[in-house]
């Protein structure tokens, strides 16, 4: 009960700006006044994941900067032969649009969740999962294409050997995140469809009352996956 | 408690349970940001398609990347409406990754220098 007492009322009376930061952290209570523990923990997990992907991208930068062998040109490596000519990076561009679309449907799902329209929310979440699965399938296609062309973690036909290892590690880790996200989405969508968050049914793992905030927390993870792709797209594919 | 001011919470949150702190914003905002992300992605793809090279290429890539990342974090992940304590706790630590980047740039420069000095053009 203490938790509800400390968070009630005062929400709009708290100081803003830096004074608010100092007041929140020195309040001898929970520091994040408007974020529940679930949301705060998801953010902290995402922060740790940021460091993981940050380390991968830094490793890639170090490998690319320190090799005297020319780096393969991603624009040509990831080109597809369509209609008699090579279109550069087209598959990666389509994957980017698919993932951004899935972020859009996820944002809408969160919105409809807070409006307590459970069927629309569940359908939007399933649509998000379908787009995520499409993304992973296209990635599998891309991996297959590169592997048949002779790309290995230790060699490739076009240049610096580190290209293969960084490519498989970075996109593989990101694809794993998308896959886990799809599974997470299906589980949450089932709960929404069943009306768990309307009747506050307790979770099988946490035994906490179900609330529509779970959809927003799920959304945080999904948008993060999209966010990481923005950085991979810029640094690995476009640079 | 005398120095209290209303903090910048958007008026759309009123309709919800006090404990929920739900994020309720107009659908139009999400659709607008969605469209913006599409346009920015198309721009960054055009950088490659049009074959822009050199510093202009890197500047444009970084610009579109930061704009997209900012939109996703601020609007889709609702960071724009969170208390500053959470914003600082989450967004400041990744900035320190830039220190790591600086360290590794100097390290990579040293590696390529020794490789070229001792092995010539081949590794």
TrEMBL record, chain A:
Record keywords? Cell membrane, Membrane, Transmembrane, Transmembrane helix
Q: Where in the cell is it found?
A: Cell membrane
Q: How does it sit in the membrane?
A: Multi-pass membrane protein
Q: What residue stretches are annotated with the Heme-copper oxidase subunit III family profile domain?
A: 42-239
InterPro entries linked to this entry:
Cyt_c/ubiquinol_Oxase_su3 (IPR024791), Cyt_c_oxidase-like_su3 (IPR000298), Cyt_c_oxidase_su3-like_sf (IPR035973), Cyt_c_oxidase_su3_a-hlx (IPR013833)
GO cellular component assignments: plasma membrane
Against Pfam families, the record matches this protein to: COX3
- Identify the SUPFAM superfamilies for this entry: Cytochrome c oxidase subunit III-like
Q: How does it assemble?
A: Heterooctamer of two A chains, two B chains, two C chains and two D chains.
Q: Which family does it belong to?
A: Belongs to the cytochrome c oxidase subunit 3 family.
The identity of this protein, by name, is Cytochrome bo(3) ubiquinol oxidase subunit 3
Automatic annotation (TrEMBL), chain B:
One GO CC term on file: plasma membrane
Q: Which UniProt keywords apply?
A: Cell membrane, Membrane, Transmembrane, Transmembrane helix
As recorded in UniProt, coiled-coil segments are none
One Pfam family this sequence matches = COX4_pro
Q: What is this protein called?
A: Cytochrome C oxidase subunit IV family protein
* Naturally occurring in which organism (per UniProt): Rhizobium redzepovicii
- Signal sequence region: none
Read off the InterPro entries from this record.
Answer: Cyt_c_oxidase_su4_prok (IPR005171)
The listed locations are: Cell membrane
Report TM segments: 27-47, 59-79, 85-105
Q: How does it sit in the membrane?
A: Multi-pass membrane protein
């Amino acid at each position: 009960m203490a938790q509800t007492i400390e968070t009630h009322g005062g929400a709009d009376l708290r100081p803003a700006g830096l004074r608010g930061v100092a007041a929140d952290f020195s309040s001898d209570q929970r520091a994040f006044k408007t974020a529940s523990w679930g949301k705060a923990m998801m953010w902290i997990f995402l922060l740790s994941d940021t460091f993981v992907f940050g380390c991968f991208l830094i490793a890639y930068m170090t490998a690319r900067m320190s090799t005297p062998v020319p780096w393969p040109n991603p624009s040509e490596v990831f080109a597809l032969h369509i209609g008699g000519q090579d279109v550069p990076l087209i598959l990666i561009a389509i994957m980017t649009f698919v993932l951004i679309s899935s972020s859009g449907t996820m944002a809408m799902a969160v919105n409809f969740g807070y409006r307590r329209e459970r069927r629309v929310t569940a359908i939007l979440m399933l649509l998000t999962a379908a787009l995520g699965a499409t993304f992973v399938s296209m990635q599998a296609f891309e991996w297959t294409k590169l592997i048949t062309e002779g790309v290995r973690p230790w060699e490739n036909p076009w240049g610096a050997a580190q290209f293969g290892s960084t490519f498989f590690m970075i996109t593989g880790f990101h694809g794993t995140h998308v896959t886990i996200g799809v599974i997470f989405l299906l589980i949450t969508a089932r709960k929404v469809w069943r009306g768990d968050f309307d009747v506050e049914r307790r979770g099988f793992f946490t035994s906490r009352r179900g609330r529509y905030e779970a959809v927003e927390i799920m959304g945080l993870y999904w948008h993060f996956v999209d966010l990481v792709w923005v950085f991979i797209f810029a640094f690995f594919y476009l640079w | 408690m005398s120095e209290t001011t209303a903090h910048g919470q958007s008026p759309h949150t009123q309709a919800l349970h006090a404990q929920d702190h739900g994020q309720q914003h107009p659908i139009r905002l999400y659709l607008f940001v969605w469209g913006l992300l599409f346009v920015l992605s198309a721009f960054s793809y055009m950088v490659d398609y049009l074959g822009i090279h050199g510093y202009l290429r890197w500047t444009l890539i970084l610009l579109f990347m930061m704009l997209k990342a900012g939109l996703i974090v601020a609007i889709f992940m609702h960071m724009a409406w969170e208390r500053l304590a959470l914003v600082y706790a989450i967004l400041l630590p990744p900035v320190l990754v830039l220190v790591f980047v600086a360290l590794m740039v100097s390290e990579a420069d040293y590696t390529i220098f020794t490789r070229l000095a001792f092995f010539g053009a081949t590794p």
